[in-house]
Structures are given as C-alpha cells and as structure tokens.
Amino acid sequence: MTNPDELAWWQRGVVYQIYPRSFQDATGNGVGDLAGVIRRLDYLAALGVDAIWLSPFYPSPMADFGYDVADYCDVAPLFGDLAAFDRLVAGAHARNIKIIVDWVPNHSSDQHPWFIESRSSRDNPKRDWYIWRDPKPDGSPPNNWGSHFGGPAWTFDEATGQYYLHQFVKEQPELNWRNPEVKAAMLDTLRFWLERGVDGFRMDVIGLLIKDADLRDNPPNPDADPNLPPNDLFGRQLHVYSHDQDEVHGVIREIRQVLDAYDDRCGIGELWGPLDRWIRYYGDSSPGSPTGDELHLPFNFRLMLLPWDAKAMRHSVDKLETALSVFGWPNYVLGNHDGARLATRFGGQAQARVAAMMLLTLRGTPTLYYGDELGMENGVIPPEKVQDPQGINLGIERTRDVCRTPMQWDGSPNAGFCPAGVEPWLPVSADYETRNVAAQSTDPTSILTLYRRLLALRRASPALYGGSYRPLDGVPDDCFVYLRESGDERKLAALNLSYAEQRVSLPDLGSSAEVLLSTHLDREGTVDLRNLKLRAHEGCVVALG
Ligand code: NOJ
Predict the structure, then answer these.
(1) Closest ligand 1 atom, CA of 67?
(2) Deepest in the core among 7, 142, 258, 370, taking most CB within 10 A?
(3) Confidence band for 101, pLDDT divided at 50, 70 and 90
(4) Residues 330-341, buried b or exposed e (16+ Cβ, 10 A)?
C-alpha cells in the first residue's frame, strides 16, 4: 500500500469540474466565462477542492458547445482570452488549486483551418489529416458506423466526392491519428498548455483516437433497446471497430511521454467499456514510470451507470479494487456534463448526501461536478430552448441541457449567474431562490455544508485520502460499510442507502468509536459499534479507537 505522504496531488486531491458556459457570467451576455471562474476562485478554495477541470473554452462554432474546437491554442472571445486564462492559472495556483484543461484530440471543428484545407481538394497536403473515403458503389457511406448523436458517422462532401468520418455531429470531423503529422501537431498543442502552466488534461473520448485500419462494419448489438429512435444507428451497434483498438495504447504512451517531460502533470482520460479493457489504459509500470505509462486516471464512470443500491455499489468498488494493479490508482465520478444530475438520478436530496459521503470517502480520486454540492437537480428545459445536439437529434429526453443549467449563487434574479434582465443561455432552475450558495452557506445543515465538511475531513485524514479500503460483511443489505486505514488511523464509512432505519452491528471493531460526521449534520460523539443505528438516508464517518 502506498504511503499517503508520498501520493501525488492527483491521487490525494479532489477534482471539481466546471462547465464554463454555466458557472459564472462576468461579462453580462448570459454565458459564463473565464473571468467568472476567476471571480469564484475563493468559493472553490473555501469549498476545499484541489483541482478544477474546465470543459472546453477554445474558439469554436459551438456545434457541440466547445467540443468542436476551431483552434487548440487559444480562448474563444466568448470566454475571454489567453491573458484571462493566465490570470486564472495564477489565481488558482495562488490558492493551491491545480488547473486541468479539456483536450479534444479525436475531432476538431469543421471550421478548424486544418479541416478547411483538408476538404478543399483531394490533393491538398492536409487531405489525409482527416478520415476521407470513397462512397460504396451505390453511393452509400463507406461503412455502417453510426454517430453518437444520431444518423450515420459519415457525411458526403459534394465538392470532392468523398465522405469524411465524424462519430459525433457532422461539424466534428475526426482527425487521422495514423498520420504522423497530425500526431506531432496535436502533441504540440499539449505542450502549448503545459508551457502555460496547466497541471493536467482531461482527454475527450481518448479511446477513439485509432480506428480499425480497414474501417470494417460494426456488428449489430443484440441487446439494443427496441425503442431507440430510428436514427440511433449508434445504439444498435457494438463498437468493435470504431472504439478501443489495441493500437491506441501506443499513441497514449506517446501522449504520456509529453506530460512526463514536465513535472507533476496528470493525464485523465474519458473512457468507457468493460473493466478488463478499461484497465489497460493505465498502461504498464516500469522503474521509470511507477504509476504506469499511459493515463494516470482513466475516468471510472461505473458507479454513475448503476442503480443506487448498496450491493451494486459495493460490488463495483470491490471489482475495481481487486482488478487494479499496485500502480493503478482508483477514481470515481458520480456526475458530469453528459448525464443526469446526481440528486435526480440517485433517489432525491436525502440520498444525494449519502452519495456525496460515499464519493468522498472511497479510496481514489473523486471528481465533483459543479452544482452537485448544492444538490442541483435536472433542469426543466422547454422544447424550444433545447440547445444540445444530442437532444435535438435524438429526442428531448436525451438532452444533456438538464445538467448544464446555470450555477445557483444566490436568490437574486438569474441566481447571480448573470445580471437581471439578461437571458441566460439555459434557463435557471426554478428552485434557485432556496437552493443557492448564499442560502446554503449560512445553513449548518445544508448539503453544501456537508460537502465542505466532508472535503475538510478527507483532506485532514491520511486514511481517507490515501489509506486502504476494506468492505465489511454482515451488514444489512441496504448498507454499504467499509474501513479506510492508514497506520494507526482507522475510519469507518457506514452508509444507509435506504428509506428505512438500519442497525449495523460490528462487534469486532471494538467498542470505542466516535461519529465525526453524519449526512444529517446533527450528530457527533461516541457510538457503540455493536449497535450502530443509521437513520433513513443516513451515512456516518466514524473514527475507531
Ligand atoms: C465527450 C464529451 O464529454 C461530450 O460532452 C462531447 O459531446 C463528446 N465527447 C464529443 O466531444
């Protein structure tokens, strides 16, 4: 077991994701910006997070809200400029907060100068920077791949008579990472930000960088939901040839070498798929790279995809703990800009607190999503206000706008996100008058207070940020109970995921124990572990003697 004192910042720290459009508008146009993030740095420092990950802020036509990048080395005027970015890095570092930027290497915008050149003619030197293929003899696309956002993954270019590949919207053409010039140019974009002082990257759909060399058809998915919309070709396929090709690992090793040329930087990858394939993205360890030679943290979304059930949570955590090699550091995500809000998904406000306690007491790096610390719920987006291409193409029930509504700072009009009288880019949720930072900051029992206390407890406890994990048997089915230990320090997390009181009996752990924190924030002091009573929706962190 690693000595907690020797852990890197990305192992012991907590990451907080900011969706810049939705965090704080400082310019008064209804869209968040970097100056807004700077304005809120003191809030983040007081919350107690160690790093912020910024979703894309690059120049972009915003076909996928910034995940369509038109210049990898600049800031969109909508969000600020490079000077504002530098101020943000300096301000964050002055508060001991690391900066992680989103890097979108699989696809650019169709307005990126590289693609404009590439599509200009078949013999343009940049033609091969993207993935172009002839139509089939009948004029149809080169293979059957579907786009994540509906329809085929190919768009025909009339002027040059070929199709180009895009597994997201057609404005996101995919770069050809088999071309060494593309690789070199993209690795340079990493160096650009590393030189500016960023501490790490969150790498978008990193497992897609390399496709099957022959671009073979994907097989059908026998388990596809029969009610998928007709245009959801992607949902009807297994992504055998379009995702997670063995050769991608060589490319990720090269990306890692770029990071390793700088001190203490971190690579986090967006990765899906079964555990045995996912785990390979840590790479191999060698004397020179004791943390593995690929990603420091392949994002672990498993808990987010499961039903909120104690056995399901424990099973997933145990499987991960067993599968990880000594150098693979765990991590957990319960919410992000692509899914439902944690408080909506995990059985309401009361259980959102239990989820927070779990996320911040498991072994491994937690990633928090802005607003989850307030218990923000899915926003209600009227059909005419839907912005997300996924919602527009695949149906309003699939829109990701629900988890991207403006951060709720106070009870003033527009929740302090943007000035009164300005229309925010997505509607502010109706509960902002009571669910906001200002109101919750002064409420000793609010979920925000719980997050602050959990973060402080974790930061002060080597057992919690760096100790071992041991699940405990013989507890009620609706409870997830585990020990975190480091040296003599022992902490117990006892989580009741149900709507009923539960009694946990742990006679082997000794009788002297002290509740440090309850999700209800109304209880501290000595407990008898032979009969630990957990109220409905209650989780406790307990110090063992
Ligand atoms: C994953 C990102 O999280 C998502 O928001 C985006 O739409 C796709 N990748 C495409 O970049």
Answers:
(1) 11
(2) 370
(3) very high
(4) bbbbbbbbebeb
